[in-house]
Amino acid sequence: QVQLVESGGGVVQPGRSLRLSCAASGFTFSFFGMHWVRQAPGKGLEWVAIISYDGSIKYHADSVKGRFTISRDNSKKTMYLQMNSLRAEDTAVYYCAKGLGYCTSNRCPSPWDYYYYMEVWGEGTTVTVSS
Amino acid sequence: DIQLTQSPSFLSASVGDRVTITCRASQDIGNYLAWYQQKPGKAPNFLIYAASTLHSGVPSRFSGSGSGTEFTLTISSLQPEDFATYYCQQLKSYPMCSFGQGTKLEIK
Predict the structure, then answer these.
(1) CA B102 vs CA A43, A52, B11: distances in Å
(2) Closest CA to B105 of B22, B15, B11, B27
(3) Residue with more model confidence, B82 or B107
């Protein structure tokens, strides 16, 4: 079955870096766009970033732009979130999610919005930024 | 920025009740809206997309409607497993997207 497993979370001091990973299985990873979404303790969901099926297109939320970078390695069926210059307000559970829309080779037949609907989610990894 | 406001923020209901959650957008977002369910300590589950299309495997007691600035998620007959927090998501602010603040559905 489709599965996403996040890893790499932990406790880190402000200003330091951390890299999260999202390992995918049960589907053709290279066909689908992927997202990172976070949830601060007791708060709602916040979209963080999206990466296209081939890694050529990336967008980040304004709150993390210039500090976080999304990437992927399709040969390893893994997505990453490199987080630099971490702040206390980055403390959250970080989820990876698979988009509903798909692409094959260089053809993307799904309506554009389908890439933003998050069909499957991992269980999350916790990042705590504290001195 | 497009703001999504869900109402109510908290809702108390009983098994078998029909409940409706509203999501209002600060500007016209067409039908670019999804709904998710999240239980405590768990990842969100995908319920509805394009405002009214039920995702595969989601029980038919869930339904979505609306367009423009006002949307609703309706559960026709609450089941014990439906008590959770529900979030709407808008895509009109492409290439970004955002979520509503959530509606917590509790057992009365």
Answers:
(1) 9, 27, 11
(2) B11
(3) B82
From chain A, pick out residues whose CB is under 8 angstroms from the CB of B95. 50, 59
- Partner residue facing A117 (CB), from B34, B42, B94: B34
A33 vs B: CB within 8 A: no
C-alpha to C-alpha distance for B82 and B63, rounded to whole angstroms: 13
CB contact under 8 A, A124 and B43: yes
Measured CA to CA, the distance from residue B52 to residue B84 in angstroms comes to 20
Query: Tokens 């709602």 identify what position?
Result: A44
Tens-place pLDDT, residues B64-87 = 999 999 999 999 999 999 999 999
How far apart are alpha carbons A17 and A129 in whole angstroms?
10
Nearest-angstrom CA–CA distance, B67 and B69: 6
Averaged confidence pLDDT in chain A: 96
Radius of gyration, alpha carbons of chain B: 13
Match 């979505």 to its residue by tokens.
B64
Interface with B, mutate which of A118, A119, A120, A126 (most B CBs under 10 A)? A118
Q: For residue B89, which amino acid is it?
A: Q
Q: Tokens at residue A119, please?
A: 């069909």
Q: How far apart are CA A7 and CA A24, in angstroms?
A: 12
- Residues A108-126 have pLDDT tens digits of 888 888 999 999 999 999 9
